[in-house]
Amino acid sequence: MADVVDAAAEQEREALNTGTKPVAESHRFDEAALARWMETHVEGYAGPLEVQQFKGGQSNPTYQLITPGKKYVLRRKPPGKLLPSAHAVDREYKVITAMGTTGFPVARTYGLCVDDAVIGTWFYIMDMVEGRILWDQTLPQYEPAQRHAIFMDKIKTLAELHNTDHEAIGLGDFGRPGNYMGRQVERWTRQYKASETDHIPEMEKLIKWLPATLPAQERTSVVHGDYRLDNMIFHPTEPKVIAVLDWELSTLGEPLADFTYLLMNWVNGAIATIPDQKAHGVPTMDETVAYYCSLTGRSGLHDLDWFFSYNAFRLAGILQGIVGRVRDGTANSPHAAQQADRVVSLAQASWRFAEKAGATG
Q1: How far apart are CA 231 and CA 58, in angstroms?
Q2: Which of 127, 157, 180 is the endpoint of a domain?
Q3: Confidence of residue 202 (pLDDT cuts 50, 70, 90)
Q4: Relative orientation angle of helices 255-268 and 144-163, to the nearest 10 degrees
Q5: Residue 211: strand, helix, or coil
């Protein structure tokens, strides 16, 4: 999700996050040790190995591993001081591996290493999936029919995730049952407080209001936690999702948290800036809700303003964590310090949604 954005901001974000670069000094590791580990643990691996770092990503450093016959991706915990429960690459590996057994679009995984002696932190290896990453939510480079098809497949893929029988694929222990929203509010409150750099009045009010007004949890599924257009790879020519990326925030929980996060683009993001969504080829929010409900067997959605408030609050907590890593000297991006202003704007947006949901004070 983005707070209100413009085309220039989207172009800048794409430039900052697209492609690879030489490995940053703070994220270098023993490449020879990695190659030895891959020889033993990665089926079909054959060197020599070249390592580049992907430009994007504020959290877990991600690398492109290039060999003469194949490219891989390595995701690792960042070095240095870490917040409790953050950067759980073992959980990413587990959910990607399990979802892959169902035919859900994820990269193939090859191995997980929990021995810090290899490269200094835990990591896992997966396929490098070649395709399109679409950064601008308004899809200016496509015709209306193409935009519509891309959006519909994105919604359908999320519904497929939420319809997956997580017990049947070994993910019954991937999260605690029940009270997902309560635990999420508590988690992001803790992260915000652990990383707090400035006093934000709206955050203080939300920290009291959100846990006192939790909606009932009706369903449990695997939730992705950061399901947005630029966290997926589309087929090179077809409007089809071929890999969903960045599972760091995934767990078992309330699927409406995932879906309403996606909907934020219609109320406080790039899609909200499109004057005639139908002519543009983007489904309206009502159409998006109706399609998702038809795929997941729902008659409608409830507590939307509460969920919108929660999603903005959660993103404020995530970005505050990035600001905190700047303070602690472990930020993965030189632009991380710019997130501080966004924390304030997201807190204010969250409180506006809270007021729509009945909050006072």
Answers
A1: 13
A2: 127
A3: very high
A4: 160
A5: helix
Is the same domain home to 222 and 316?
yes
Six token digits for residue 94: 């587990």
Amino acid (1-letter code) at residue 104:
F
**Residue finishing a domain among 127, 152, 180:** 127
Establish whether the linkage from the previous residue to 78 is cis, with ω within 30° of 0. no
Q: Which residues pair with 233 in a beta bridge?
A: 243
What's the rounded mean pLDDT across residues 26-41?
95
The per-residue pLDDT for range 131-150, each reduced to its tens digit, is: 999 999 999 999 999 999 99
Which long-range contacts link 174-177 to residues 24+ away (Cβ below 8 Å)? 174/91, 174/94, 174/95, 174/222, 174/250, 174/251, 174/252, 175/251, 175/252, 175/253, 176/252, 177/220, 177/252
Do 184 and 257 form a contact (C-beta atoms < 8 A)?
Answer: yes
Give the model confidence (pLDDT) of 225-248 as tens digits.
Answer: 999 999 999 999 999 999 999 998
Locate 100 and state its tokens.
């892959």
- Provide the domain limits for residue 20: 7-127
